[in-house]
C-alpha cells in the first residue's frame, strides 16, 4: 500500500475486468488473485534483494546507477528549459 506505482498498476490492470456483468464472487476472486500475485512478487523480490551477494553487487553498482540517473534527470531538465525558452 505504500507504493503508489504498484497501486496504479494493479488498479489499471484490474479495472477492465470489474464491470456490471461480473458477479461479486468473480470480482472477489479477481481481487484475491491479484493480491496473491502481488504478495508473491514483492515477497520474492524482498527475498532476492536481501541476499548478501545481491547486496554486495548492488552496493558496487549503486554509485554508477546514481550517476547515470542524475545525468538523465539533468538532461531532461535542461531540455524542458530549452523547450520553454524557444
Structure description:
The protein has helices at residues 4-14, 24-49, 52-85. It has 86 residues and is mostly helical. The model has no long low-confidence stretch (mean pLDDT 88).
Largest sheet: none
Number of helices: 3
**How would the global form be characterised?**
flat
Q: Tell me the series of helices and strands, N- to C-terminal.
A: HHH
Helix content: over 70%
Cα distance, first to last residue?
A: 42 Å
Overall pLDDT score:
88
Strand content: under 5%
What ranges have pLDDT less than 50 throughout 5 or more consecutive residues? Answer: none
Output the structural class: mainly alpha
Please give a handful of descriptors for the protein shown.
single chain; 86 residues; mainly alpha; 3 helices
State the gist of this model.
The protein has 86 residues and is mostly helical. The protein contains 3 helices and no strands.
Topology (elements, then pairings):
Layout: H1 4-14, H2 24-49, H3 52-85
Amino acid at each position: 500500500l505504500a507504493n503508489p506505482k504498484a497501486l496504479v498498476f494493479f488498479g489499471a490492470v484490474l479495472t477492465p475486468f470489474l464491470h456490471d456483468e461480473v458477479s461479486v464472487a468473480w470480482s472477489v476472486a479477481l481481487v484475491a488473485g491479484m493480491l496473491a500475485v502481488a504478495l508473491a512478487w514483492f515477497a520474492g523480490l524482498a527475498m532476492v534483494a536481501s541476499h548478501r551477494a545481491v547486496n554486495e553487487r548492488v552496493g558496487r553498482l549503486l554509485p554508477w546507477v546514481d550517476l547515470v540517473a542524475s545525468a538523465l534527470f539533468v538532461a531532461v531538465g535542461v531540455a524542458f528549459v530549452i523547450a520553454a525558452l524557444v
